[in-house]
Every structure is written in structure tokens, then in C-alpha cells.
Amino acid sequence: MNIAMCAGLVLALALAFPAQGAGTGTGNAAGHRPQEIPDSELGLMRGRYTVGGNAVAWFGVTMISTWQTASGQQLQGALTLAMDFGDGKVPRISFTPSVSITAADAPLPDTGGRSVDGSGLHNVAGLVQSVQVAGDGNQASNAMQLTVREAGATPGAGGASTGQAAQRMDGASAVAGFDGDAARVLLQIDGQGAVEQWLRSGSVGQRIALAGDGQQVANRMRIDLVRQGPAGNLPLAQNVAQAITLVRAGGMGAGY
User: Fold this and answer.
1) Residue 148 domain-assigned?
2) Domain limits at 170?
3) In terms of DSSP bridges, do strands 203-210 and 126-133 run parallel, antiparallel, or are they unpaired?
């Protein structure tokens, strides 16, 4: 999966070292002797040295889609996807999908003459939530939650890195899959519509399109992000501390 998909998480680490003043003549001239920078001036320099505290240590997403028809048929699709960046820039990916379908107690109603089409939503970048209804007495909801935490123990996850779970019964299908580029949950019933969630490079979305009556559907998505604190980048923190110490001990008065 393209790592930039998670809403464009970008880390910028910068070390700004002071420029050395270039004197002419002898370096011991009175006007060019190193001068200690007072604490008050150092206070104004705060922020010039930054330690990356916004690096992503762990990223996880959970998607659950449910659908209950007026005839009693129930569909569910779910997946969990985790990306662990603890070992470097290339994440360890784990993925667990699940789907289930129960039989209908009665024939599904005829929805001839009704239509819904959300295919164009796949061309939209960013965050997408959509509900399209062409019937009566339906209940539909999309919900999305983002949780950002500081560095600490990351949730455990297991499973394969790619693959899918799929089931089909009596004109209904449920698929939860991850192909390395996108994770998706899709529930469909012939002539009744579709319920879908996806996460791919540049786009996170939830879509509900219903043509039948008396349907109860819901999309739920939770995204968890764990940020790596300064302790996770100890060598960089030590370099910054040394640079600040050197500047305070014998920085030049010019060149800042």
C-alpha cells in the first residue's frame, strides 16, 4: 500500500546549524572573538532545532459494514488493517478480513424502475461519505472516527498481508479484501443496492446506495494513529542537544 494514503502523513526533520562568521585578518582581533550568547538570546532561537515527534509509529484501520433487509436477510463484512513502522520506513502489514450472510426469510421485493449510481465517487480524492436512497422506510448511516495517540505500546495484529474473504448467497454477496494498494469492504444485493467502505492512496470513503424499502444499513470505520515520540529517535535527539550546547558555549555573534 502507498504509505502516503493515510491522509498525507509527512515527516519533515530539519537541523538548522548557525552559520559561522568569516573574519578577515587575524582570528584574535577584538571584533571577531567568539562571544557567548546569553540565555535571553538563546530563548529567541527556540524552535530552530527540532526533533521529529510526528513520525508515524503505527497505523491501523477497522471497517465494519452491516445490512439487514426487510425480508430478514443479514450481511456483514469487516476487516482490520495494521501497518507497523517500528523497524523503519517499510512497514510490516497485517490484515484480517471476515464476511457473513444469512438467508432471507421471504423473497426480496421487486425494485424495477429504481436506480442508484455512485460509481463516480471512486474518482474523488480525500474523504468521501455518501448516502443515496431510492426507496422508503430505510435507515442508513456512515460513521468515521480518527484517534491519534502518542508513542507507547501499539496494538497487536495478526493475519496475512494480502487476500480477501468472500461469500455469496441468494443474490447477495459480501467481500472484504486488501490487494496491497487498497482495502475495501463491499456488500451487495441484486436489485437492492450496495454498501461499501474503502481506504486507498489519496482516498478514504463510505458509500451507501439503496433501491429497496425497509433496509437497515451502517458503515463504521475507525482509524488509529500512533505517533513516534522523540525517544524513538534517540541519535537525532543527542545530535540536537550537542549542537545547542556548542552554540551556547562558543557561538559567533554574527551570522544568525
Assistant:
1) yes
2) 58-83+91-106+138-228
3) parallel
